[in-house]
Amino acid sequence: MDELSEDLELLPATRRALRHRIAVAQSEGRAPSVVAAVLRGGEVVWEGSRTSVEGHGPDGDVQYRIGSISKTFTAVLVMRLRDEGLLGLADPLEKHLRGTGVGEVTIAQLLAHTGGLAAETPGEWWERTPGELRPELVDVLGDEPLRHAPGSRHHYSNPGYTLLGSLVEALRGKPWEEVLEAEVLEPLGLERTSARPKAPHAGGWAVHPWADVMMPEPLEDLGLMAPAGQLWSTTRDLARFADFLMRGDERVLGADSVREMRTSAAPPEPGFAECGYGLGMQLMAQGERRLAGHSGSLPGFVAGLWLSEADDVAAVVLANCTSGLPAATVAADLVALVAEAEPRFPRPWRPFTEADQVPLEVCGPWYWGTSAQVVRLTADGSLELGPVGATGRAARFRAEPDGTWTGLTGYYAGETLRAVRRADGSVSHLDLASFVFTREPYDAQAPVPGGVDPQGWRGIG
């Protein structure tokens, strides 16, 4: 067994803890069945299930309905359109999809649920009624589609993702389902993910809240609401999808674009556990750990998918009950069980391999006023800026062809870092978003804003 395989294989105690967690979830949640999978290092390292049927249990190939995890798939399609230059996230919807009545809402706002749209459709409960009852967008949006001023707050909206699905159809000239199949499912090899159930699949059940009896839930085709919650999938397919959401795949979306999806674009609604919402992805804090993914539910089914990029671990939980089993919470617990019991091995340190491109002159200590900072160059050519011995703003920067660096994280995300040179070519100071970083605190030889007292540093006397 090679070193990588050895690291991926879970210890017996970890595997037992995972089995125990879903056993407790199925028992306490009174679910007819639950199936789960854990991904580490890009590989499914554990699968498990529990069921109320003696001698039979679902496996990673059995389909369950995944509800709002469908939204993340729809968001991937929209991001593909952005990456192809067919739209901008700041574009108003009206630019590409006319006549909705909410055309001033931007595409980014729809992705992040900040467009102000209603949470649900008017009329009957859309999840338990056929899509034919809502044949047009006006039937989905109603006469008063907005509940808040666009951009003013995060307000989860299912109709908002109907609009995004219609946007995909308008720009591709094909049904949402066909575009999804050709552009996401086939390239990623998600052969068991589909808009309609394919055997083997679980049936959806409602479990009585005060008695141990069940009733089947209707399985409706959601019509125009499909981009918000139509899909069926398996734990194996969703584990593969989670790996894509961590690393990207140039056939679908590159690493930078999926990282953008995982970046907070809106604060959470008050009272929600999430720490924010990205572009089609929920974000959650689990202690110091940061999770990205999505929960899902439709009558008869609950689902949860979470990933921790820092730990390189993801988990998927699917169950066939309307309520009771908190699938998203259980999935987050599975991530924590693996990440905490078996911490990720750090990558081996390796020196930079292209010495002629190492900008050593910008490495080392710098001062923003009197605040000590340090710049480090990593083996991938990016720069890391952070405080020395104190809390402060830290960021990572990507090298650009013109010799500057672009901020990727934190306060300086999107800002430009420049090394300003003297006439002799040596570096005078760093300029970052108008801040001047000097080699000495308030270096009198550098253009410190406001100038430097000519008497310099002194004590009290």
Note down, in words, how this protein is organized.
This protein has 461 residues and is an alpha+beta fold. Helices cover 25% and strands 22% of the residues. An eight-stranded antiparallel barrel has the order 12-13-14-15-16-17-18-19. Helix 2 packs antiparallel against helix 11 and helix 9 packs across helix 10. The longest helix has 18 residues. The protein is globular.
Topology:
Elements: H1 3-8, H2 12-29, E1 33-40, E2 43-51, E3 64-65, H3 69-83, H4 107-112, H5 137-141, H6 158-172, H7 176-188, E4 205-207, E5 214-216, H8 226-229, E6 232-233, H9 235-247, H10 255-261, E7 274-277, E8 282-286, E9 289-298, E10 301-308, E11 313-319, H11 327-341, E12 364-368, E13 371-377, E14 383-387, E15 395-399, E16 405-407, E17 416-421, E18 427-432, E19 435-438
Antiparallel strand pairs: 1-2, 1-11, 3-6, 4-5, 7-8, 8-9, 9-10, 10-11, 12-13, 12-19, 13-14, 14-15, 15-16, 16-17, 17-18, 18-19
In whole angstroms, the N-to-C terminal distance is: 71 Å
- Uncertain segments are 1-6
Note the total helix count. Answer: 11
Structural class: alpha+beta
What are the defining features of this structure?
19 strands; single chain; disordered N terminus; alpha+beta; eight-stranded antiparallel β-barrel; 461 residues
